[in-house]
Amino acid sequence: MKFYNRRGIAEQWIKEGKYALKWTRLSCRNSRDNQTRLQLFALAYNLGNFLRRLALPRSVKHWSLTTLREKLIKIGAKVVTHSGYLIFQMAEAAVPRELFAAILDRIQRFGVPPPLVQRG
Question: Pick from 51, 80, 116, 119: most CB atoms within 10 A?
Answer without folding.
Answer: 51
